[in-house]
Glycosyltransferase family 8 protein (Postia placenta MAD-698-R-SB12), 383 residues
Amino acid sequence: MWEVAQRIRGRLAGWLRNPHQDYTPLWSDASNSRPLSRKYVLLALVLIGASALTNVILYGKLAKRWPGPLDNYQPLTIQPVVNDDFLRTRSPPLNSSENAIVTSLYTDSYATAIATLGHSLNRANSTASRILFYLPEKISPRALCIATATGFIPRAITRIPPPHGGKGVYDHFMDQYSKLNIWTLADEGYKGVVYLDADTLVLRNFDELFALPYNFAAVPDVYVDGMGFSLGFNAGVLFLRPSTEVFTDMLAKIDTASYNMHEAEQSFLNHYYGAEAVRLPYAYNANLAIKKRKPELWADVKREARIVHYTLVKPFLKEWDNSGKTVVEIRRMESNVQNKLSAFGGMFKEELLDWVGIWKETRRTYADVLTVCSGASATLPSS
Ligand SMILES: *[C@@H]1O[C@H](CO)[C@@H](O)[C@H](O)[C@H]1NC(C)=O
Ligand SMILES: *[C@@H]1O[C@H](CO)[C@@H](O)[C@H](O)[C@H]1NC(C)=O
C-alpha cells in the first residue's frame, strides 16, 4: 500500500517538474464514465477555475509554468566558468604538501581506470599530491601496481562498513562509506582535497578548486528519470577541507541520522552538509547523464569541462557488467571499449573515444611499468 502511494507520488512529482513527459490525463476515460465520475470532473474544473481566478486576483495574470532553466537550456552567458583575473591576483600558488587529489580502489576491475585517470591528471599539469585509497583485503598486487603506475601513491585504508549491517544499501555501494576516510588527511597536514571517483577522467586543470574558501563543495546530481536536474549533489567529485573532528562526528552520525540508505555515503553527505554544501558548476563533474537528459546543455558543459564522470557507461568495465566483478585485461581494453560504443544508441561514442584515446596514451607512456604489473599476482592477498 505504502509503495503504491510512493509510486503515485513519484509520478505526480515527476510530471509536475516535467510537463512535457507523457502522462495519462485524469479525465481520459470521461467519455465512457458514469455520471458519478462526471461529477468529479466538474468538481475538478471548478477547483482549477477557482485557482486561476485566485492567480488573476493575486498577480493580475494567469501563472505560466515554465520548465526549469536547464530543461529549457539555451547558451546565453558569454562569461567563462572561472574568472582568471581574479584567480591570478587572489589565489596563492598551489602547495602540494597541503593539497591532494584522492581516488579509491575497492575492486580490481577499476585499476586501469585509475591508471588512465592518473595520466589524465599528468596531461592537465596537475601538481597536487595524489593518493589512492584501497582496501588491502580486496585488491590484488597486480591491480594495485596498475592503479599506481601513473602517479597515485597507494594508501591502505580501513573499511568503514555501512550502518545497520548494510541493510537497504545497494550492493555496489557497500564499500562507499570508506570514502569518509578522506577527512582524516587533516592529520598529515592536508588543507584541501579534491576527491575523484575512479570512473572520472580529467580533461583540464582544476587547481582553482583548492582556492575555495569553503569547507565542502560538490556538483548537483542529474538523473535520467523524472527526478532530472536535482539539487542534491553527486558524491563522485568532492572538494573538502579535511578535519579529524568532522571525521569522528560523521562516524557517530552515520548510524543515527535519518536518510535514504540506498545511495549510501552520497545520501549521508547530502544530509550532513545539507544547505551548506557549495554547489559547483557541472564543469567539475560532467556526468554523462546530462547528455542523456539535455544534449544541448552537454555540448556547452563540455567546452569547459574539467572532469568527466562516466556514470551511465563505464568504458573499462566488461560489457553488461556494471558491478565490476570481471577484470578486463590490459590487452583487451581497446576492444572492450569498441564493444561499448553502441551503448545508448551510440550517444556516448565521443566520450568513450575520449577515454580510449587517453588510455592508449597511458599504455604507451607507461608500457614498461605496466609490463611489470602484468607479472604481478592477480589473486587477492586474503585468498
Ligand atoms: C607548503 O606547505 C608545507 C606544510 O604546511 C609548509 O611547511 C611549506 O612551507 C609550504 N611551502 C610553501 C612554498 O609555502
Ligand atoms: C602543461 O605544461 C606544459 C609544459 O609547461 C605545456 O606545454 C602544456 O601546454 C601544459 N598543458 C596544459 C594542459 O596546461
